[in-house]
């Protein structure tokens, strides 16, 4: 896992796994991150706290041994190092709910305040180490990881990757057995692909049938695993919901959902991870690359990925506008919205692209607090991550401190002054070229 050849393999593998709507770049080189100082007990004093759900205008937060110990009044003690929180906001570490993870990606994520990544299709070889790390409160240079492992798709279907020999579902496959094999490999949830490709010039693709998807989801539930579905089209999103999906890991952007469609998705109870960054055609990346609060901290890999803005096509539908309209309607209907990026794909890099995605969610109609909840408490609740996603006593001290007030101005989330992972400060120095 830590050898350079293996790193390259994982990154190139991840490059095939993004959404079908936008192509992916070749792998970029990267190096390992710097060492961070040891953690200890400390207080962040007189800080505005967004606790994952609501705002506490002024509080102090005590951290010791990797956990949040108190939120509110914390008596002064010579044992605690003090950080001045005045004029700043403390947030739970961010959770990116749609990535395809690799080692440097998890370090890049952490240096931008993303302390947990939920991987949506990857090599199951990464799972045992990921599980060990996320159970520990030891110092780490990488975001914690949960993963679907190998997603459920058909021969020739999305993700189309001739170099990666993975099991795929055919007409004769025993679907219970297939899902049991993923669970045995360590999949934390089951990812289902409903993707039939097109429209031209993109090729059409073979896909699971809705009946197969229903069987996969039922098998996942029998194994006490959530089932999440890749569907970028309204028709397929509705099929996923009718099949019992727990979540959709893209918005749909082939057309706007009508009131009946939105109501059906809401009744189905699924959450939605919009990944609007997938269809912003580089708007978020251009904005990040022009932001002096961002650029000093970019790794070579992050900069490379952000610079890969896809060429525009004359007459291309405005997928971002369509997807955003759908997200606004889903949110208004009470559908839980979770923040995710689908990194690494073109113009979309680990960690940093979450800061652009939060802006997309606000413009889609969530408002800053709901957008921040979509990146903290909402994913913790949707995925059952009981030890994180809020600033509350007993939870893991994954914390993000920013200048200003992102609960009223989401752009302030980019003004990062400190990040703690498991109560240890994160060194934001990017790795060398
Ligand atoms: Zn993906």
UniProtKB/TrEMBL annotation:
Domain of life: Bacteria
Keyword Signal among record annotations: yes
Database matches in InterPro entries: Amidohydro-rel, Metal-dep_hydrolase_composite, Metal_Hydrolase, Metallo-dep_Hydrolase, TAT_signal
Signal sequence coordinates: 1-30
Keywords: Signal
Amidohydrolase-related domain sequence ranges: 89-423
Pfam families in alphabetical order: Amidohydro_1
Stated name of the protein: Amidohydrolase family protein
Native source organism of the sequence: Actinomadura vinacea
Organism ancestry: Bacteria, Bacillati, Actinomycetota, Actinomycetes, Streptosporangiales
